[in-house]
């Protein structure tokens, strides 16, 4: 039984509206995945969650105000055709999520932010037991990072309206909308590797009580 499922089924985390709510400590890390200009290239297709960047900004503002851990993940692809390849504008951070001086930036070259990086060591070194994940792409780097995070024992949250993806065909050739791909990816994670919440819920969990280490 994974930790995420145990937490979601525990009555002590029920809010007044019957939603499973967690209490997030000041050591909760906000991990921003691949929020770079590359993701705005038209070649990606039609996306969902047009409000995602605005919600990322809200979360960033809260984490910065309360001096909570922030980790920016920067993807640098090794594929020459990628919009995330090095040496061009796409690899730069989007303005909405540009790191401030002193904030941690980790460069990765594969989908999950844990492979070939010091992300796990940084989280454990800072005493971070909880990880909140936002960014792109839901069914790629977000899902891959959340799966490893959960398997490593971190209490992991993916913010459903601060992540987004694009429409794509399944293995049988049937096209699925971005919203359908997004929903299935979150379903893959929910209760097994991570807990899925909205931005408003995460902000409530992080700010409804005094933040303690």
Explained architecture:
29% of the residues lie in helices and 19% in strands. With 213 residues, the chain is α/β, with parallel strands linked by helices. The chain has one domain: Isochorismatase-like (Rossmann fold, 3-Layer(aba) Sandwich), CATH 3.40.50. The strands form 2 sheets. Strands 3-2-1-4-5-8 form a 6-stranded parallel sheet, with helices on both faces. It has a two-stranded antiparallel sheet with strand order 6-7. Helix 4 (138-151) links the parallel strand 4 and strand 5.
| Helicity, as a percent range | 25-40%
Average pLDDT, rounded to a whole number, is 90
Number of helices: 6
What is the rounded Rg?
17 Å
Give the number of domains. 1
Beta-strand content: 15-25%
Helix and strand sequence: HEHEEHEHEEEHEH
Instruction: For the largest sheet, list the strands in their spatial order.
Output: 3-2-1-4-5-8
Main sheet? 6 strands, parallel
CATH architecture: 3-Layer(aba) Sandwich
What is the rounded distance between the termini?
27 Å
Weakly predicted, low-confidence segments: 1-16, 208-213
* Number of DSSP-assigned strands: 8
Write a brief structural summary.
With about 210 residues, this protein is an alpha/beta fold. The chain has helices spanning about 5-10, 50-65, 120-125, 140-150, 180-190, 200-205; strands spanning about 30-35, 70-75, 105-110, 130-135, 155-165, 170, 175, 195.
Topology:
Elements: H1 3-8, E1 29-33, H2 52-65, E2 70-75, E3 104-108, H3 119-125, E4 130-136, H4 138-151, E5 155-164, E6 168-169, E7 175-176, H5 178-189, E8 195-197, H6 199-207
Parallel strand pairs: 1-2, 1-4, 2-3, 4-5, 5-8
Antiparallel strand pairs: 6-7
């Amino acid at each position: 039984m994974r930790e995420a499922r145990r937490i979601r089924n525990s009555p002590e985390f029920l809010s007044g509206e019957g939603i499973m709510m967690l209490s997030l400590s000041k050591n909760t890390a906000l991990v921003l995945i691949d929020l770079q200009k590359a993701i705005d290239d038209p070649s990606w297709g039609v996306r969902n969650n047009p409000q995602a960047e605005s919600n990322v900004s809200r979360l960033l503002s809260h984490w910065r105000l309360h001096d909570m851990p922030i980790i920016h993940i920067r993807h640098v692809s090794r594929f020459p055709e990628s919009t995330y390849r090095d040496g061009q504008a796409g690899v730069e951070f989007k303005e909405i999520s540009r790191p401030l001086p002193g904030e941690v930036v980790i460069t990765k070259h594969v989908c999950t932010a844990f492979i070939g990086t010091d992300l796990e060591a940084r989280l454990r070194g800072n005493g971070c037991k909880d990880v909140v994940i936002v960014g792109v792409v839901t069914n790629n780097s977000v899902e891959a990072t959340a799966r490893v995070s959960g398997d490593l024992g971190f209490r992991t949250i993916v913010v459903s309206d601060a992540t987004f993806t694009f429409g794509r065909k399944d293995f049988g050739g049937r096209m699925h909308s971005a919203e359908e791909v997004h929903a299935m990816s979150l379903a893959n994670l929910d209760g097994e590797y991570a807990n899925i919440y909205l931005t408003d819920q995460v902000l409530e969990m992080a700010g409804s009580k005094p933040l303690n280490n």
